[in-house]
Amino acid sequence: MDKPKLFTVGPTYVNEDVREEMKRQMFSHRSSDYVKLHSELIEKLREFLNTENEIFIYTSSSTGCMESGVRNMISDGGTGLSTICGAFGKRFGEIIEQNGRKLVESEVEWGEANRGEQLDEVLSKNPGVEVVTITHCETSTGLLNPLDELCKVAKEHDVLTMVDTVSSMSGTRIEIDKLGIDFCFFGVQKCFSVPPGLAIAAVSKKAMEKAETVKNRGHYFDFLNLKKYNDKNMIPYTPPIPQMFGLSKQLDMITDEGAGNRFYRHSKISARVRNGCKDLGFGVFPDEKYAAPTLSCISNPLEVDLAEMNSKMKERGFILASGYGKIKDMTFRIGNMGNVTLDDVNEMLENLEEVVG
Amino acid sequence: MDKPKLFTVGPTYVNEDVREEMKRQMFSHRSSDYVKLHSELIEKLREFLNTENEIFIYTSSSTGCMESGVRNMISDGGTGLSTICGAFGKRFGEIIEQNGRKLVESEVEWGEANRGEQLDEVLSKNPGVEVVTITHCETSTGLLNPLDELCKVAKEHDVLTMVDTVSSMSGTRIEIDKLGIDFCFFGVQKCFSVPPGLAIAAVSKKAMEKAETVKNRGHYFDFLNLKKYNDKNMIPYTPPIPQMFGLSKQLDMITDEGAGNRFYRHSKISARVRNGCKDLGFGVFPDEKYAAPTLSCISNPLEVDLAEMNSKMKERGFILASGYGKIKDMTFRIGNMGNVTLDDVNEMLENLEEVVG
Predict the structure, then answer these.
(1) A311 touches chain B (CB under 8 A)
(2) Final residue of a domain: which of A254, A288, A303?
(3) Which of A67, A90, A272, B224 is deepest in the core (most CB within 10 A)?
(4) In this predicted structure, what is the pLDDT of residue B3?
(5) Domain boundaries, position B238
(6) Do residue A267 and residue A246 come from a single domain?
(7) Which residues of A touch B99 (CB under 8 A)?
(8) Could you tell me where the DSSP H helices lie in chain B?
(9) Which of B229, B254, B279 is the endpoint of a domain?
(10) B236 at interface of A, judged by CB pairs closer than 8 A
(11) Smallest CA–CA distance from A335 into chain B, residue
């Protein structure tokens, strides 16, 4: 019971090698030791992300990247468009408004995917939109939006794209440059299985050029200041060095596994989760055509007492995630991000069968 | 040579117990395990800081707290006053301007302290000032500003105070409530000797009330949102859980040492550093009456080749800090923050004598 199996939706289970790596002694963030850590991490990220874009290291959670994107890529008082199909897309829109920008929403029912056609319509009606936000994997509904068609439409309208890949990056293939994503960001505590406290973003040349024209970008999340220090393999303030060591180690382990194998593993295991749950009489909350490969949002037609179920599963050493937002009480979620294996999932499903059976 | 003695000015040397504690397995930041960690940490901080103020946990460096204070405590378009006696006070002023607020500077020569009399004059001439920023320990010049007289003047003018205690908190006594500090913040990688990635702020009721009147506070650093989650023993996004474990452990160790003993240790050791350096023919850069108890900024009348000196010291396993900002080339700095002992300093000074002798 020391180490329950985490099927949460982040922070995820961190293996011993990564945690051991994070134990290293500290050093100054203005030293040659730090420059080495920073430059090697950027190099590994560049290879894994397969992008020519600028890669920033943030001392923040991914939510900080959202604020950064909004303050740098939408003019002060300008307009951003949020595609929304769940709680995290909704919040992205709120962050736009809270930073004094205007918001246009392109929303669908929870459980459905945001589609290109609707985005095209909304953009056509709102020619002033500067940026479209896309939640790749909507963690509240377990849904993976079709990034290719959404990015294609955004490009046709010549608007910049900010893509939240928080719960998809390293769990499925994302072609940043091919899709033309201008701001692609994620934390390390989901599919990378590194403890939280570090976020990463890849920023296109166009996004950097836009930032130069935007006033009131602030200091902490300012692209231009981040770039100035990134050129010296530093960040403007103190970075979360332990998590950087952890991510660097994890990227080595991903190389060993093979990125393609990793994506396939996530996809196969999430299908096993969904099918296993359906076998027990549960349902899949989102349109299954768009079901996420990294977590499953499970509906409850049997009206099982979910709080009791989660509690019994915890007693057995398996931590599942509750529902989120307005579907909190009618769903539960099973994450399979990061280091979760098929054996882990089979064992969890066997226990789930005993608990609800 | 595995573990050089860090006499840097942060991140500082982290002892084994703290790093071991940070190795704990992760869990969801919306779980009862997290609520326990959060509430216990706040309780320990409340005891150590001896304050009734709201205590916030930030997933950021201390620079993020500066942005937070500025966006919440100065009206959008309003005016802040920065007291400046070095690079970090100067930057605090820049952060005010970069967030679209107006700036008034109250500046003295580097090496001198900001004094109450000057602040009183500048505040009298600028009745529109809403907030005064104070850099308690100016890390670029190794100077500790007289917090009591500065806070007293600010109170007389009925303006809010934001105090940067980044390189002083836990190295010297700071009476937050008695001085009436409205926003007191610090990181954990200096005198607390915890790896970087976590910052803490104590926010007064007056500062919270002010925030309610301020528009365009953003999302990530919004006091009201932080408070809403703090009431549930959570933060609005993902917290840096390993550093929270580390700080919690370190606060236990500070209790064991005794806070008073810890402050006395810092004071005694920094005096030893300054006297040891003077014995070798170096000077003390700041007005010695205000020399910081946590780091020493050393001037170089002998015109020793400082780069070569630091490099030779590093070969011997002692890491000193370079000068900073406009006095970078004419000074060097010796930190004694956190876990540094008198024996460490004596050993370092013996080696320094051999290197420059």
Answers:
(1) no
(2) A254
(3) A67
(4) 55
(5) 24-254
(6) no
(7) 216, 218-219
(8) 16-21, 32-49, 62-73, 87-98, 116-125, 147-156, 176-179, 205-213, 223-230, 241-257, 259-279, 306-315, 342-356
(9) B254
(10) yes
(11) B28
